[in-house]
Amino acid sequence: MDIIFIDDLRIDTLIGIYPREREMRQTIEVSLKIGLSTASAGASDDIHDTINYAEVVGRLRQELGVRQFGLIEKLAEYIATLLLEDFGAQWVQVSIAKLGMMPGVKRVGVVIERSS
Description:
Blueprint: E1 2-15, H1 19-23, E2 26-36, H2 39-44, H3 53-66, E3 68-69, H4 72-85, E4 91-102, E5 105-115
Parallel strand pairs: 1-3
Antiparallel strand pairs: 1-2, 2-4, 4-5
C-alpha cells in the first residue's frame, strides 16, 4: 500500500466542550496519512488516478468552517469517514491536535487509524 500524506494542516474551527471553546474559533493541527495504491497514477501521470491532496485540503477547510464538534475524537472519526467514503482511501491515519490548551503543554490530541 502506498501513502499520500498531509502534515501539519492548520484549520480554524469551533471545537470543544467548554463554553469558551464553543464561542471562539481555535486553530487545530491536522496530519493525515492516506493509504491507497498509487500505481495507476504513477503509470498514467494523471491526477484522476489518485487522491488529489489539494481537494482533500479544500474539502476539510470547507467542512470545518461550517461544522462544530465537541470532541477531537468525533472530528477524527468524521475526517476518517470522509476520506474512506468520499475520496476512496483504503486506509487512513488521522492525527488532530489542539494547540496551547494548557499551560506548559504545546499540543494535545488524538491519532486514529481506520480502513475500508
